[in-house]
Amino acid sequence: MIVNKTQENGRITLVPEGRLDAVTSQHFQNDLIEALEAAKEVSLDFSKLTYVSSAGLRVLLIGQKTAKTKNAEYTLFNVSAEIMEVLEMTGFTDMLTIK
Q1: By Cβ atoms counted within 10 A, which residue in 17, 49, 73, 81 is the most buried?
Q2: 3-state DSSP: the chain helix, strand, coil percent, rounded to 5?
Q3: What does the radius of gyration of the chain's CA atoms come to, in whole angstroms?
Q4: What is the CATH number of domain 2-98?
Q5: What mean pLDDT value characterizes the chain?
């Protein structure tokens, strides 16, 4: 998995490319936690994300909890219909801010 990162006006945007699964989730979690340590506003652009597994969902939840403790804004956007379906089925749409 490749994770592109942009930083602008105190906001960090992470763009994961490929699959967020058991193999790639630790790498993405490290990038996400680093971003949440560095900025008060972190966005995840899922336009290039093709798959998310339960391990990936765990990372998204860790990100939400970390953002809450840091009083940071944490949002997802450009979520494909397939990934949105997974988020809806698991109840994550109620826990995450998705634009």
Answers
A1: 49
A2: 45, 35, 25
A3: 12
A4: 3.30.750.24
A5: 96
